[in-house]
Amino acid sequence: MKPHESHSAAAQAAAPASSSVDRRQALKTLAAGALATVTAPYIRPASAAPTQLRALMWEGYLLPDVIAGFEEKYKVKFAPTFFDGNSEAYNKLRVGGTKDFDLVQADGFWPSLYFREKLIRTVDYAKMPSTQHLFPVFKPDQYKLLTDEKTGVQFGVPFCWGSYGTTYNADQVPAEKAASIEVLFDPEFGGRLSTSARFEENIALTGILVASRMGTIDKPRPDGKSFNPYVLTDAELDGVEKLLIEQKKLLLTRYQDNATLEQLLASGAVVAAPEFAQVYRLLLAKKAKGEIDTTFAHTLVPKEGGLGWVDTWLVSSGVPDGAGLDVCQSFIDLMTAPETMKKIALASGCSTTIDIRSLSTPEEQKLYLMDRTGELSKMYMFDQPSSTEKWERVWSRMQAA
Amino acid sequence: MKGRWSGPLLLGVPTAFLLALFVLPLVSMVVLSFWRTENYHIVQDWNLGNYLTLATEGAYVTFLVRSLVMASLVSVICVVIAWPVSYAIILYGGRYRLLFTLAFAVPFLTGEVLRVIALQGLLGPLGLINGVLMALGAAPLRFIMYTNVASAIGLVYLYLPIVVTVIYLSLLNFDARLIDAAKIFGASPARAFFEITWPLNLFGTLIGFALCFIPCLSATLAPRFLGGPNGTLYGMAMAQQFGESGTWALGAAMGVVLFLTSILAVLAVCLKVDLRRTGFTGFGRG
C-alpha cells in the first residue's frame, strides 16, 4: 500500500459496490464526456437547419444591423472571415475551405474557375426574388460569367460592380493626364502617388500600359484570343517589371486598405491612386459635408483600357441541398434586396448590380454610375494570372530592387 | 503525484504537444518545400527548384539580408533601451517593481495589428508627430512616413516590452550582494557593473535579444503597414507566397531557410559566449 492510500481494506470492502469508482472508470467517463462535448456540435443530421452561417467575404460589405436582423429571423449565427484578394480566397477554398465556409464572394472570372473546380455549387434564382431587380446587363441572359456554359445553370449572384480606375486630386492633376494610366508613372507627381498592395491588379494594369506602348494590345495574341491583361507574354512581363521598378521611387506607399488611402488623399499627401471608386465616393461625401475642401475626380476607364470587376455571392460546394442551401439563398436574397443594396452602396461606396434608382436621388444615381452600367463591357474583367509563378517573380524583383 | 504514470504523463503531454504542433508542421513544410506549385496547384514532383530559386534569385537574398540587418538593429536597440529601464525598476522601483513591470506588459493586452495600425496613424502624414510639426509651420518628417525607419520604430515598439520583462526577471534573480562585495574590495561602480552585473546577467540579456531577434526576422505586419515601397522584408515576402500568389512550395522553402537561419544565429551566439559564466544554470553543477 502506498503512503497516501489511507483507506483500510475493511473499509473498502464495506463500501457498496455501486458507489465505488476506480481510476480507470473515472478516466473512461471523463474521456467519454470530453469526446461527447467536443464532437456534439459536429454530429448533426445533414438535413438539420444550420445554426451558423460562415461567409468568406470582403469586409466592406458587412452591415451589422442587416446581419443582426437576419440572425434574429433565421436563428443562425453569422460568422464572417475576411479576405483581401481573389487568390487569397481561392487558396483558402482549395485547402479544405468548402467545409469551412457556406458563402463565398469572388469577382470577374473567378466564380467560373471556382465552379469548374467544384468549389462552389449551383444556386436557384427563383428562390431569390431580389434578383428580379438586377440591371439588365447583370441578368443571366446578358452577364454570362455566372452561368455554366454546358448546363445553363447559375452558380452565383452579381452584387456590386466597378472598375479599378484612378481617383485624383483635381486641383493638382490635370484631367487629360488623369485620363491615362501614364499618370501613375509620371515623375511630375513623384512621392505623391500610391497604388494598392495587391500584386495582381498592379501587374495587370501596368500590363495594359506596356502592351499599349509596345503596340501588342491590338495585335494577334499567342493564344489566339483577344488581349487579356492577365495573360501577358514574357516580353510584356519584362516591360511590366521595368515599369514597376521605375514607379516604385514615385510612390509614397502601397496602401493596404481604403481607410489609409482616404487619409492620404484627403491630407494631400497623395494626389492620384488607382482604386475601386469607393474612396472617391467617400471623399465626395466628405466634401459635401464640408469636411474637406479638395476637389476629387475619378477616371472610370483610362484611355488605354481598364480593369473591371463584378463582386458576386456564391454558395460553397460543402453546402448540401435542403435547409443549409435555403438559408444561404435567403441570405443572398436579403443582401441583394434594393433597400439593403442602398445601404451597402452608401457604406462601402460601391456601385450596385441591383437597380436602386427609385431609392436614390439624381446625384446618387450619377455618383454610383447607375446609368453607366453599359461601360462594363469596355473593361477587362479581373481574372487569374496566366502564371502565378512568373507574376510572383516579377513582383518580388520589383520589391527587392 | 509520484505514481507509475505521473512521469510518462507529465513528460508525455508536452512531448505530444511538441510533436503535433511543432515537429509535424515543420516536417510537412520541409516536404512541401521539395514539391512545386503551378497556378495554385501543388505538384508532388520532388525537386530542389525552390531552393535553387532562393539561392540564385537575387530578390529573396535581398529580403533575407534586409531582415537580418533589421532584426539585428532592432534587437540591439531594444537591449540598449531595456537595460537601463529594467535596472532602474530594480534599483528604484521599491514595492512598485511589479506594477512597473506589469505596466510594460499592458501593450500585450491589445492585438499586434491594432498596435501597428495605431503606430501607422502616429507616424503617417496625418499622424500626431507630423500633424503637430505641420501645425507649427515646420516640414513633415518624411523619414518616418512609410520607410524602413518607420518599420524599425514599429518593431522596437512591438518587442521592447518582451526584452524589458526578460532582463528585469534576470536582474530580479541576481544576487545584488555580489556588487557590494566587489565595491568592498575596491571596485568602482562602473567596474562592478561590467565585471559582475553585466556578465552574470548576460544569459538573460541573450534570451531577451533572441526573443526579439527571431520574431523580427519573420516580421510581417510592421513592414507591411509601415515599411513603404522599399520596406519588403523576408517575412512579408514569405507571407505573400502563402497569400495571394499561392506559391506555397516556394514559401515553404523560404520558411525552412528562415528556420535554419534562426537556429544558426542562436548557435553562433552560444558558441561565442561561455554560458557557464553568464548566469546560465541549465548545465547543472557538473
UniProtKB/TrEMBL annotation, chain A:
What InterPro entries does the record tag this protein with? SBP, Sperm_putr-bd, TAT_signal
Primary localisation category: periplasm
What is this organism's lineage?
Bacteria, Pseudomonadati, Pseudomonadota, Alphaproteobacteria, Hyphomicrobiales
Q: What name is this protein filed under? A: Extracellular solute-binding protein
UniProt keywords (A-Z) are: Periplasm, Signal, Transport
Q: Where in the cell is it found?
A: Periplasm
Q: Does the keyword Transport apply?
A: yes
Domain of life of the source:
Bacteria
UniProtKB/TrEMBL annotation, chain B:
Membrane topology, as annotated, equals: Multi-pass membrane protein
Q: What is its main location?
A: membrane
Q: Which residues form the signal peptide?
A: none
Q: Does the keyword Cell membrane apply?
A: yes
Per UniProt, subcellular location reads as: Cell membrane
Q: Fetch the PROSITE patterns from UniProt.
A: ABC_TM1
Which Gene3D superfamilies does the UniProt entry name for this protein? MetI-like
- The ABC transmembrane type-1 domain covers 64-269
* Residue runs in coiled coils: none
- TM segments? 9-35, 68-92, 99-123, 143-169, 200-226, 246-271
Give the keywords, sorted: Cell membrane, Membrane, Transmembrane, Transmembrane helix, Transport
Q: Which CDD domains match?
A: TM_PBP2
PANTHER family in the record = INNER MEMBRANE ABC TRANSPORTER PERMEASE PROTEIN YDCU-RELATED, INNER MEMBRANE ABC TRANSPORTER PERMEASE PROTEIN YDCU-RELATED-RELATED
Sequence similarity = Belongs to the binding-protein-dependent transport system permease family. CysTW subfamily.
Protein name, as recorded: ABC transporter permease
